[in-house]
Amino acid sequence: METKDVTIGVVGVGSMGSAIAGGLVGSGTCAAQHVVVCDANPACTEKMAALGMRVASTAAELVAQNTDVVVLAVKPQILADVCSGFAENVANRLVVSIAAGVAIETLEGLLQGARVVRVMPNLPIQVRSGATAVCAGTRATAEDVQLVCELFSALGSAQVMREDQLDAEGAVVSCGPAYVALFIDALTRAGILRGLPADSCREMVEATVLGVAKTLVETGEHPRSYLERVTSPGGTTAAGLREMEPYVMEAAYAAVDAALARTAELAGSK
To answer: Are the beta carbons of 115 and 93 closer than 8 angstroms?
Structure first.
């Protein structure tokens, strides 16, 4: 099925749900009239309606419209309650869940007969430069996985993973935008401390990070190779890296481990 012909329902259009719906329409992947949304907050659905999408008053009403795909973009703690309103109407339907920490086994228990696919996207999908892990449930077909990958590839990178890899992907990739933003803020503050104007310093640091990312993506160069290429022997960059690298590497490992530990705690509290 061509993505432009696919009909999609998005339950919940907060930050992530609106990024998914808006990105699919804005990229031309899906026609606006083929997307129907619902949310408890009318302000959220009004923004989607302004883009030409259809609006349902409830999740049950949305599901009743028999879209090819139903995307569940609600918080994990309310997912079960939301699903209870339409669970009997999604048998043999493709249902995509972005709820972090809610296992496929749980989703398939809530949505009897549905063809479930779990995805773990990150917030940069809102500018179509995100990253999404895709994991098939026991009833999902190869065609289902291909379709989901095509849809989320329009929002950035989409990679198929096993479910046991999703927690690590979340700790690295879903949390990653905050790690990168923290690094940008730290480097900016270091520049300000040494006398650079705040606005100019932040703009230049952001431009630098964007430039490095674009170079690595467009050329396929390995980050370590790029790092070595811009570091002159005995130069200022080499001196800076000597101080920075041990702390950055240790901080990255510790951050991912802490995020994984918190993921386990949250999973145990459900």
So the answer is: yes
Phi, psi dihedrals of residue 225, rounded to the nearest 5°: -65, -45
Q: Where are the domains of the chain?
A: 3-163, 174-269
Quick one: how far is CA 44 from the chain centroid? 19
Q: What architecture is the 3-163 domain classified under in CATH? A: 3-Layer(aba) Sandwich (3.40)
- Spell out the residues 6+ positions from residue 166 whose beta carbon is closer than 8 angstroms to its own: 118, 120, 133, 135
Domain covering 174-269 in this structure, CATH number: 1.10.3730.10
- Mark the ranges of the chain whose per-residue pLDDT is less than 70: 1, 269-270
pLDDT at position 265, please? 84
Q: Cβ(72)–Cβ(79) under 8 Å?
A: yes
Nearest to 119 by CA among 63, 62, 157, 67: 157
| Whether the model pTM is above 0.85 | yes
